[in-house]
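Exercise 7 asks you to align residues with tokens for two separate proteins.
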Amino acid sequence: MLRAAKQITRHRGTNERITYLCSKIVTSTSNSYYSTLNQKKYKGGGKSNGWSKYFLAPRGPKGWTIPPSRGYGMIVARVLRGALKLRYILLGGAIGGGVTLNKKYEDWKDGLPDLKWLEEVMPKGEKWTQFSKALAEFGSSVKDVIEIDPRLKQLSEDKIAEWRRWFDTRLDDAIEAADYQGSTLNESKGEIKAKTTVTALSLSNDESRRKYEALQSQVENLQTEVINVQIKYQRELEKMEKENRELRQQFLILKQNKKTGTKKIKKSLIDMYSEVLDELTGYDSSYSMADHLPRVVVVGDQSSGKTSVLESIAKARIFPRGSGEMMTRAPVKVTLAEGPYHVAQFRDSDREYDLNKESDLSELRREVEFRMRASVRGGKTVSNEVISMTVKGPGLQRMVLVDLPGIISTMTVDMAADTKDSIHQMTKHYMSNPNAIILCIQDGSVDAERSNVTDLVMQCDPLGRRTIFVLTKVDLAEELADPDRIRKILSGKLFNMKALGYYAVVTGRGRKDDSIEAIRQYEEDFFKNSKLFHRRGVIMPHQVTSRNLSMAVSDRFWKMVRETIEQQADAFKATRFNLETEWKNNFPRLRESGRDELFEKAKGEILDEVVNLSQICAKKWEEALSEKLWDKLSNYVFENVYLPAAQSGSQNSVNTMVDIKLRQWAEQSLPAKSVESGWETLQTQFLMLMEKARKSPDHDDIFDNLKLAVIDEAIRRHSWEDKAIDMLRVIQLNTLEDRFVHDKTEWDHAVKFLETSVKDKLDQTEHTLSEMMGPGQLTRITHWKSLTEDQSKRRHVKHELDKILRTDEKHLPTLSYDELTTVRKNLQREGVEVDTDYIRQTWFPTYRRHFLKQALHRAHDCRKAYYLYTQQGTECEISCSDVVLFWRIQQVIKVTCNALRQQVINREARRLDKEIKEVLDEFSEDEEKKAQLLTGKRVLLAEELIKVRHIQEKLEEFINCLNQEK
């Protein structure tokens, strides 16, 4: 059927087509019908038999056999019915194809660009004639002034040619699409083309061509207009090219970030340069080489718009605002760099401020203001302390700017007396750098003669080889001043000051809340309609707007960087060679180690000594703790326990008083004194280890000051655990409850402890008496000394007191009134006048000496009285209560030292180690502390050599990247 339908299109005429179609259908139908029957096989074999004729004959609806004549009639009826059906198919296909083709044409027409704006822009009638003449006159007038960039002309011609090719392509595509749709429709429906479809296609093609020709004529007319007004669109084209470059850079940055993943992003060129400046500034505050590298110094009178110009270049309002008040109190170094996100960050901080969020902008401004006010100390108004920050964002020009405080002519009462001179000196210092670019800001809204900054600039750069003049607030200046005067300023004819370029900018409308985008739009609108651009004006378009200013400053900045950076690298190379030679001559066998490396080495040695505390044996710990504990307790034991109890009288009262005194002592002061003794012992042992290490042959004395400072600070912070006191109180109370010496060995140790303690106390008493009585007879003779009047009196008083003690060896600790009177009268007979207090003062050491000597005799007698003590107890003939007392004290000291030793090893040594680490961590972050504790020629020379080497490497790295960028 399909092959028959395709052949119909080759014949013309309706009757001929129908006849041909019927014959083809009959032939193909019959052939197909009989060929199908021939392919059927009967059961059994597949050969034809007698029944084949029956099966090959036509059949009726119920399977009856139809005679041949009637079969031919049915075939003819079916052919006629198919022909009528084909007729409707052809008609429907023709109508559907036309509708589809018409819809395709409408879609193509909608795809054409909207050119209605041409009707609004293009004048009509007489207005068009006047407009054309005005454009022609304007073109002839500016032809001599403005030279059209041939690239722009070529760009416009290329654009028109591109438009033509685009229209031709779209039209050809539409025609081809229509042909293809028609051919597809004809192929699916038998390739029958209705006359209505051909007519509609021809009509649509003709209409499209007429519209195209009309549009082509309009385009040719517009070509002339584009060429005439190309000056107007020049800045727009430049802006689009710039944005294209910025987008491409952002794409590359983001692509690089995606590839690197968590790897460190390569620093930009301007970031590397800014780090070099920071390193040079930190190298030496008085080092002038840091000032020899280029940077842009923003100078101007107060409130002249310096900060606003810098913010316009940075595309963000990053500085605090004030109405007439001095806000810039310290130099602010701003490093501008390109980046995918508009953010700001201080050099000494990791936080990034999103400059697209007003909340982050407000916090950034507050932080800048806080840092400025913090830098002003001691009643000063301005400071030389530099605040460094980095601003990154899409399309930012790469450079380093320094915003300085504005120059003032009059000081207010709230300013320091040296504010004016300090600002002048600071400004001159930054401008005196032979490679600094001076961005001289002049307020256009005030008289030029009132400016203070121009004279300073002329002094530092008389030839104007590195000065760029910027006239701000031009919108106000145009309203208040003569435009011709402004033109003179911008052409360099009003001042004697010379400059590389003169620029005019608008820094805002006087509103604090205006965004940078609003200010830029206001600036663009102002210069578009400004009287400064009249026909007779001499100002070029590149002299206006902050965008052109930033591009010019950036170009000049990088030009000077390329001219000077290699000289600075060579200078540091020579400095490094000299320092290395000096180091080899002074310290040939040592490696140059800076403070940080030396600090880490000292840190390791200190921590090793803390570990060595655990190597001290238990016996040594207990001996040291026992010695320290008794040294703290001995005075209390003698003065508050032993002497009052021993001098009280009877044996029973002595034991009762001892029990009371010991219990009070254990409940109150003994545990705290024990902990104090343990802590002091820990310090002593640690210092002994440090001293031992100091005497070793490998010791380096450069660490001594640092180690002592760290240990002192850690010990000052350390405190013993509170629960240790409660634990010791329980142990000590339980120990003191035991009043019976268990064996002879402990008794002997107690006696020895008593004798040693009494002898020590006796020696102290003898020394006190010696100072009171003066030297003896032999010493006076051999050393040619004599007694003082007071010493002579003391000798007379002591002589009288010795008589009393010889008379009564068991005398009470105090003198009675009668005894005092007797002594005083006896002295009066000898011509010595003293009062009773004087006698008592002499009696106290005299009686103590007497008592201690008796205590030694009792201890000697008790040495062999242990068995009497065990048999008779307190009823022993020899009084040994003082031995028992010292045994109890000895037992308390023993258990206390054991508990302290365990706590030192298990807890306090580790806590001390932790505190020492904390102190070391704090000192490691304090550069002033390290500089104070690590001193000497070796350290200073190594520090300088390391810094110079580091700066030189950074310079060489920067130069390599700079050369690669070329």
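Second protein for Exercise 7:
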Amino acid sequence: MASISKIPSSAKDEDLEEEIEHFDDFTLASSWERFISEIEAVCRQWLADGTKNLLKNGAISVNIYEDLYKVKTDLKYAMKSYCMEYYFGTHNDVGRGKGNDWSCALHDLQLSFGVNEFLVIAPQSASGVVLDGPEASKLLSAVAIALSNCSCLWPAFVPVHVPSRKAYIGIQNMGTLYTRRFEADRIGSQVPLKLMHLEGLYELFVSKFAFSNMDLSMHLFQVNLKMNLTYRTVPYDEDFDVQEPEGGITEAGGSPKSKHHNRKPWDDDCPWSEWYSAEDPVKGFELLTIWSEKAIESSLEMAELENASPLEAEKWSISPCVSEILSADSDGKRIGFASQLQLLIDALHMSLETQFVEDFVSVEHSRPENLKSTAIIPPPTVLDRVLKDLFYEVEAAQPDFAEGDHKNSRTIKGAPLESLFGQFCLHALWVGDCNIRAIAAFWIEFVREVRWCWEESQPLPRMPANGVIDLTTCLINQKLHMLAICMDRKHQFNQKGPKADENGVFLSARIKADTEVQSVISSQDGDAQASCWECDSLSTPDQDPASHISSFEHSGAVKLGDPEHSACIRRGSAGVVGSMMLLKSYQNMHAPFTRDSPLMTEDMHEERLQAIEALGDSSRFSAQLEKDILSSDMSAFKAANPDAVFEDFIRWHSPRDWENDDNMEKGVSQINAVVESTYDWPPRGKLSERMSEHGNLWRKIWNEAPPLPASEQKPLLDPNQEGEKVLHYLETLRPYQLLEQMVSTAFRATADTLNKTSFGGLKQMTTRIEQLYLTMSTTLRCLQTNSLFVDAEDIKDLKRLCTTFAHVENLITLAASLHRKFMQAPRLSESIFNDYDNFHVPKLGTVSIGRDVKKVFNNEQEVRQGEREVIASMFTPPTANQSWRKVLSMGNLLNGHEPVSREIIFTKRDHLCENYYVGHAPRGYQQEFETYRMYVCGTSNDLGVALAVTSCD
């Protein structure tokens, strides 16, 4: 019996009425009625929550569709379990809208029946469909009653038959007047020939509301039609006779630089093709040609429409068929720079296991326990081929390291791309499987080859033999640059002999600020030469003619005009220094040719800094460490100015240490002390306190320095000694020190290689590359701390950098492919790329991602009228040997290609007059209503049909 709660006497009448109103008697309810009540309660709850609350409470995003979410609940009836799902969007017109009937973001039920939000109730079974017809009808009736009880207008669907048929039955209560019924089914094979053509499909739709077959030929039925035809280009690798391996490695453990194909690959002219062959990320394109709604009155018009050209369609849109290899789910499957950098970081992690590189390849030492047994050493033939490419197959001209480099490339402390070590690192990525043993064997052979070049006096390839050592590069590159300079100077010495000018090409005129050397200096074949100049203009009429310079020989020696002068030979002069005059003789001061400062690498500079800290006295340290350079300058100055004294040298070399007399009528500032008037002689002034103190080291060096021009002095840089030091460094380099420099150089070199890719004016791609360089510069700083190890967090950061690098590498590959295919339509190339880039922004880690990230890229781009010819040219006429070609059975051909898919929406609208359900309606009231709708989708091999009928019953 039903229980009645006791009502207090003090309760109000309205409370009593409310209690009676909510009284439910379940004593006679059947299980089916209780099932309806459960459905009704759930629907009422969803209606009450609304869209915003459902999203807050954990509504699930339907991943492959835009702005479509669902909530679900489990129900039980007659010992069976069911799942009821409610699909909704955040906008009222989710999925459907004007001009959006063919959006790829629509759910199948939205596209088939033209609905927005809807319910789906299905059994919780392996098939997920209702196989029994009466059960499906009863299930749909229960949902319809529940929705009617809560005044809800949601359409409800039940999947039936087998899953492959995608069959549904459904119903929708549209108020007190109309009911809409739905039915969908699919033919998977043996489609009737009549239904392959538009004429037959039109007659199929008319048969749904015509009273008899006679009406088809005797009556004209006005039907509205929308059509969408999809064409797909031939895959670009369809005609490849032999498919190459993606990594392009043709020999076990070898470098992929020598590959042969039966057909030129798509990326043959791309910068990365020298190292690997990338799969074309754009397999083809899908072209959607859309005919807007038009009225059709006979099957004859449908036959004419089938013969129409796709160029007559009102709208074109194109969608790329992007390879799955670019998706985030395929990380590790694609062979490219990023995958090899991952292996190199693993080798870096392993490099701490031993102290010497040889231990990784020596059979006398046990290998590290955690080293994989599959880590093989490449065979000698492979190493020989790679070394030949590094050292012998090189152009004679020295490479321009700055050419083509990105502006942010120098922020990464590695070797330039075209340098010897930069190319070594690129080769190391592909030698073997880039394991630590293969790298160790490659490095040992590399150093042996470098030593051979040194001992045989052969130029070091890919390295400049002059210039200043770039301290922003890695130390190995600096050492190789130093070795190349030493080899060049050693070669020059061997050619000229010990009595010749050993280092003439490295002489220079020391020119201070506000100082003019009035001469024209040239260098040819390593000999410092000076052209003759007129010096009459440098003297005044009152000057002694004997002080004039009469000639300047090619050897740099000048005879003074006064033969009785104590020093009659001037050697190594580069020209007169402005109007400066010597203190003890009425002669012009000459600037000497001096030797350049000795070249130093980064570790040599660090040694000097440590010496500063050890000496402590910074004022005396400078002269002590620079004694050789200072003595060389003093000797050259004495040779160019035979009558000079120590004060003259200070005035030329260190003008700040010469203090002018304050009582001079025409005072000259201390900074510009080198510019003096020829009328004021001798110059009045004194040495600074630093230079005039007792026991000054500079004066001692001056007294000991012989008057020798720079061409006759001993070189400041001993090429033999410095070259052996470089080779010792390379041969004793610790594994970790080698690998940390290899990682930085490999990232820089691979990024510079990809940066050379031609991808048109894609600004977004340019931005991505700039961001990559900045990210690399920040992440790789952990390898520049001179520490003996990297911690686990650093390795994780480097791994994440590889992931970011892989995404940018994929984008560059896509940009290059699109640029080649849309040379005549760059707007489409840019639009497609930007869509794909925005699609992958969450995967790059720059935006937080949630559960609603789409898994498949399927954006469409509208093709403008002037771009249609470019797109049509992509559909080349099919050839007979293409396996995909079938017997043509559908119309609307595009350059011989039939549509791969055809979608049609037939609709019929009627004016429904008032009836007994709406007796209160005004007289003559009429309303146009969509009474029939049929969606047809299929090809010549399958056909799907979805019918929606609106009626008053």
